[in-house]
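Propose amino acids for all 224 sites.
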């Protein structure tokens, strides 16, 4: 059976779920947070060490300001009220992306990372204002500035995922089959599962099914 160390998830379909069932995209985002909590708990059960969640992309700034503000208020509330619980459970929070949010949110993010920095049970990498193209261009610029030889190893040193193993498995919900500028370098050999369900409808049973299927895949990595 394949070892599973790192799961990445594109949590798609929150807004569409909200419109379908509550006539509000924001209601979908709120419901999606409940799914996040269930998946974190189940990841620990499966002894997964890294869980990367695509929460807000560089392209998401194009959304209505009202929706963006609601998303960040949800995050602020979660960090204020739940980071202590994550810390007690030995969970580490790391942010990947560019922190150019409000001073309040930036302070909460920095404080949460610092508070949980030594935890070892599960590392949650929260991709906020993250875009893989920007990440790669920035890494190449650093290599050029430092005059270092370009190689896979040298480039990886300057990615935002430095010291984080590449994902073994990517799950995208919402019945959309694309990567949406997410971990383009790191997902080169990940097994990819596209799910029809919206993120709020994604269950622990769905997660277990995918993990079971992943573990039984014959992974060749270019070999026969």
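Proposal:
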């Amino acid at each position: 059976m394949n070892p599973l160390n790192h799961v990445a998830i594109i949590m798609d379909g929150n807004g569409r779920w909200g419109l379908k069932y509550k006539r509000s995209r924001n209601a979908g985002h709120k419901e999606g947070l409940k799914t996040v909590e269930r998946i974190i708990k189940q990841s620990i059960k499966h002894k997964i060490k890294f869980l990367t969640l695509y929460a807000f992309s560089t392209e998401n700034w194009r959304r209505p300001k009202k929706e963006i503000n609601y998303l960040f208020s949800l995050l602020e509330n979660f960090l204020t009220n739940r980071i202590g619980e994550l810390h007690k459970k030995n969970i580490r929070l790391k942010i990947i992306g560019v922190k150019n949010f409000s001073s309040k949110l930036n302070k909460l993010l920095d404080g949460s990372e610092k508070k949980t920095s030594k935890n070892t049970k599960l590392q949650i990498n929260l991709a906020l204002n993250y875009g893989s193209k920007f990440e790669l261009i920035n890494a190449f610029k650093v290599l050029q500035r430092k005059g270092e030889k370009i190689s896979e190893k040298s480039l990886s040193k300057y990615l935002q995922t430095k010291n984080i193993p590449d994902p073994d498995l990517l799950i995208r919900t919402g019945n959309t089959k694309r990567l949406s500028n997410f971990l383009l370098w790191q997902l080169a050999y990940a097994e990819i599962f596209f799910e029809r369900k919206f993120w709020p409808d994604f269950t622990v049973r769905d997660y277990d099914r995918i993990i079971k299927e992943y573990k039984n895949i014959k992974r060749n990595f270019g070999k026969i």
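The chain has one domain: 6-215. The CA atoms of residues 10 and 172 lie 5 Å apart.
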